């Protein structure tokens, strides 16, 4: 494929368009900066005075668009975290809808800019309740590792609108939340991935049907030559597969899928044979990651990546921080940082990935605690508990015969877990808290960073 024609010195694809930007956080502020540079006439707003002040200090025009009669804009760029319908419509979204003005996300505006530049770069979108960040990062890794021009962002990493303009041979790999998918108008994904669906964000979508409908927007505007990659490992998979215009490619982490990609044990396969042995991919343990690998491999094949490049990329994938991240080995014991697991549902895949572990868990508990993990308790040689939930978790584990120690803090948990692993002859210490972190940390990232630092501080021969 040929590269796009060189851009003019002043590339202003939004010249003459008046846009309202509401929400000046991680996505909104970079979007405002770039849209201004691309010629748009802007009015920016944030409900927090400090964010408005920061935008004004940069020279961005600040004012409440909802206060203007008739909402005189061509579009409203509304940050994903701000609701435009449920549970309570934001005033700017209400004004936009009353005026018939579209409410968009920044990925839509990236797509328009790319096409305005003359580029035929392709777009790959990834969604699902769980696994979308890993699958997004993995697909980008496969493409970049093979020397392809690729940019990754969206719900993962940099905001979509901040990504570079790619040429005809480029591929944008975008993680798409349900919030973003509801705010598309023209963006068409050449490759669209739907991984799974479990209850989440019901307050924003009303019920599971509304949540599923939002996810299904990833297939909007697909054409016959496009790929609709759909995991069939949960009950919603067949629903997503019905009536697709794009070519449906089924994937699974454990069951054969004629015409698709699936894992047979740890072997990743398609109709042509074995694509890769996932035992050579240490950052992709467990059945859930087999599904992620199958989806990424199916997307890479649909885009035209050679099989050998896919196998090599799977083996070299480093994984994502805080998602079953292998942070070090001390005295033959592997330490795994799965701090992103903030509820029992997200801890289950981690426990399923190891035959026997010493488990570090606890923090601010979610509804239901860890009761749903009981079938996986036999994998836990010992538990070391921290945070607010420690007492309740200890009682639950004791009722199932799992020995547990209350360490209180992560600093105290590391030596206790190391000692427990040695005593039990267990080769893995797993931090997968099944809890939010806010009793002791600013977020799961800070908790995972602290765990990584504590492991690094252990003596090599500990």
Gist of the model:
The protein is built from 15 helices and 21 strands. By secondary structure, it is of the alpha/beta class.
Topology overview:
Blueprint: E1 18-22, H1 28-37, E2 41-45, H2 49-57, E3 75-78, H3 91-98, E4 103-104, H4 106-116, E5 122-127, H5 132-145, E6 150-154, E7 171-175, H6 178-181, E8 191-194, H7 202-205, H8 208-216, E9 227-231, H9 237-241, E10 247-252, E11 261-264, E12 267-270, E13 273-277, H10 286-303, H11 307-316, E14 325-330, E15 333-337, H12 344-352, E16 357-362, E17 364-365, E18 380-386, H13 390-399, E19 404-408, H14 410-424, E20 428-431, E21 435-436, H15 444-457
Parallel strand pairs: 1-2, 1-3, 3-4, 5-7, 5-8, 6-7, 8-9, 9-10, 10-11, 15-20, 16-18, 16-20, 18-19
Antiparallel strand pairs: 11-12, 12-13, 14-15, 17-21
Helix pairs in contact: 5-10, 5-11
Low-confidence stretches: none
Major sheet: size, sense and barrel closure? 9 strands, mixed
> What is the terminal-to-terminal distance?
54 Å
Shape: globular
CATH level-3 fold name of the largest domain:
UDP-N-acetylmuramoyl-L-alanine:D-glutamate ligase
Measured by DSSP, the beta-strand proportion falls in 15-25%
Strand order in space, largest sheet? 6-7-5-8-9-10-11-12-13
By oligomeric state, this entry counts as: single chain
Q: Class of the largest domain, according to the CATH hierarchy?
A: Alpha Beta
CATH superfamily of the largest domain: Mur-like, catalytic domain
- What is the β-strand count? 21
Average pLDDT figure = 95
Q: From the alpha carbons, calculate the radius of gyration and give it in angstroms.
A: 23 Å
- The assigned structural class equals alpha/beta
